[in-house]
Amino acid sequence: MKSPKSILALVVLALLSTGLAFAGDDKKESKAAGCCARAEAKGEKCGHGCCAEAAKDGNNCGKCKGSGKIEKKEEAKKH
Ligand SMILES: [Zn+2]
Ligand SMILES: [Zn+2]
User: Fold this and answer.
1) What's the gap in Å between 69 CA and the centre of ligand 2?
2) DSSP codes, 20-79
3) CB atoms within 10 A of CB 31
4) How far apart are CA 6 and CA 4, in angstroms?
5) 3: which DSSP letter?
6) CB neighbour class for 11 (10 Å; exposed up to 12, middle 13-18, buried from 19)
7) Could you read off the pLDDT of 5-63 as tens digits, one per residue?
8) Which ligand lies nearest to the CA atom of residue 49 in the structure?
9) How far is the CA of 55 from the centre of ligand 2 (A)?
10) For residue 51, which ligand has an atom nearest its CA?
């Protein structure tokens, strides 16, 4: 009789390796949307509602071809 425990261990291992593969996929490239990058270059905030909405969650606006999380910069020093 096979030990169910060893089978379970194999299943867990398989799940773990799958999880690791997913973790790699999950790491999206962080890319600011063009409109936001342009606004930022001018020292302004992008005026798009969709971008503001995404920024609230710490994301780049996907609607404007941004992706991933907004890269956190060191807190801007006082202007
Ligand atoms: Zn924008
Ligand atoms: Zn947008």
Assistant:
1) 14
2) HHHHHHH-PPPB--HHHHHHHHTT-----HHHHHHHHTTB--TTTT-BSBPPPPPPPPP-
3) 16
4) 6
5) -
6) exposed
7) 898 888 888 888 877 666 655 566 889 999 999 999 999 999 999 999 999 999 999 99
8) 2
9) 9
10) 2
Output the pTM of the full model: 0.57
Distance CA 35, CA 38 (A): 5
d(CA 76, ligand 2 centre) in Å: 22
Calculate how far, in angstroms, residue 24's C-alpha sits from the geometric centre of ligand 1: 27
For residue 71, the CA-to-ligand 1 centroid distance in Å is 15
> Which among 35, 77, 73, 79 has a CA at the least distance from the CA of 54?
35
Q: CB–CB of 30/69 below 8 Å?
A: yes
CB 44 within 8 A of CB 79: no
What is the rounded CA–CA span in Å between residue 41 and residue 28? 23
As given in the structure block, the two tokens for residue 22 are 């997913």
